[in-house]
């Protein structure tokens, strides 16, 4: 049994958080694709940010929590920051939309537009995470939340208590079948509801690349929270299973191949059928 701290003894709650500079981890996956993550955000809320550079335009898929400025990093990673940059928010959950307001072109599905522009309040205190989400994480088998959603600060003196999620007015909307054209690459928008009503993924038919957002990643999929629906999610998984996928980049966790996609999908369909 751990000793109880006496008066004046530091507790975990009092211990100052270390500073993590840089805040973001950058992984160059190939000549045009970079994955950016936030290793000091709790695993449940640590989402992937993908940057795809193209001939005429670049594409940013999601924007993390918005704890630290993202645009300066993204612009440094782009061959020509003067080119247009499309920021696509796959769905308006806190861990995918936090820095969307920093970008000039902000796309989202119409069903997520209102939440992107005017999201429900979020803080970094785990106690403020809506109970329905906490229940959904537990139901999916995720690791428990800690008091704070971050375990480091993005800069010295940064105050976690002052952080609030910022909304971002969409500059346009995309529905199933829309195309995002980077000049030398074309991505099709897939409407992938179930985890949220208006979630979208991106599909590149020429290569079999799939950006699946929170419809498929290599971990417990969340299907029981507010705005979620298992039956709808199951239909989305059947749709993804039928695609001639070569590589999947999900909303969380490292990328994986088609065989692993089928394993993830089949495990969840079996679980939800029980
Ligand atoms: Zn989500
Ligand atoms: Zn997510």
The kinds of small molecule bound in this structure are: zinc ion
Order of neighbouring strands in the sheet with most strands = 1-2-3-4-5-6-7
Contiguous uncertain segments of 5+ residues: 1-12
What series of H and E elements makes up the topology?
Answer: EEEEHEHEHHEEEEEHEEH
Number of strands: 13
Overall shape: globular
Structural class: alpha/beta
**Which CATH-level-2 architecture?**
4-Layer Sandwich
Termini separation = 39 Å
Mean pLDDT value: 93
Q: What count of structural domains?
A: 1
Overview of this structure, please?
The strands form two sheets. A seven-stranded mixed sheet has the order 1-2-3-4-5-6-7, with no helix packed on it. It has a six-stranded mixed sheet with strand order 8-9-10-11-12-13. Residues 1-12 have low confidence and may be disordered. It is globular. It has one domain (25-273): 4-Layer Sandwich (Metallo-beta-lactamase, Chain A). Helix content is 20%, strand content 19%. By secondary structure, the chain is of the alpha/beta class. It starts with 24 loop residues before the first strand and ends with a helix. It has helices at 71-77, 94-97, 113-117, 131-140, 230-241, 258-273, and strands at 25-28, 33-37, 49-53, 58-61, 85-88, 105-108, 172-173, 179-181, 186-191, 200-204, 209-213, 247-250, 256-257. It binds zinc ion (2 copies). One zinc ion binds at residues 91, 93, 195, 214. One zinc ion is lined by residues 47, 93, 95-96, 214, 251-252.
Short description:
This protein is an alpha/beta fold and 274 residues long.
């Amino acid at each position: 049994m751990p000793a109880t701290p006496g008066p004046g003894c530091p507790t975990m709650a009092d211990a100052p958080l270390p500073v993590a500079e840089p805040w973001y981890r950058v992984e160059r996956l190939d000549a045009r694709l970079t994955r950016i993550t936030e290793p000091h955000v709790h695993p449940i809320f640590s989402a992937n940010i993908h940057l795809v550079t193209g001939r005429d335009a670049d594409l940013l898929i999601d924007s993390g929590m918005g704890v630290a400025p993202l645009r300066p990093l993204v612009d440094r990673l782009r061959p020509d920051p003067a080119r247009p940059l499309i920021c696509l928010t796959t769905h308006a959950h806190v861990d995918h939309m936090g820095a969307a307001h920093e970008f000039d072109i902000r796309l989202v599905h119409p069903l997520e537009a209102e939440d992107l522009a005017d999201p429900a309040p979020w803080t970094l205190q785990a106690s403020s995470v809506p109970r329905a989400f906490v229940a959904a994480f537990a139901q999916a088998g995720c690791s428990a939340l800690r008091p704070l959603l971050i375990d480091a600060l993005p800069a010295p003196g940064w105050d976690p208590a002052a952080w609030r999620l910022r909304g971002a007015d969409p500059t346009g909307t995309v529905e199933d079948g829309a195309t995002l054209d980077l000049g030398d690459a074309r991505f099709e928008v897939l409407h992938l509801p179930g985890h949220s009503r208006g979630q979208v993924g991106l599909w590149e038919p020429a290569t079999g690349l799939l950006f699946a957002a929170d419809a498929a990643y290599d971990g417990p999929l969340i299907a029981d929270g507010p705005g979620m629906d298992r039956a709808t999610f199951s239909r989305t998984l059947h749709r993804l299973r039928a695609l001639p996928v070569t590589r999947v980049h999900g909303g969380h966790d490292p990328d994986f191949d088609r065989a692993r996609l089928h394993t993830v999908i089949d495990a969840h369909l079996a679980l939800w059928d029980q």
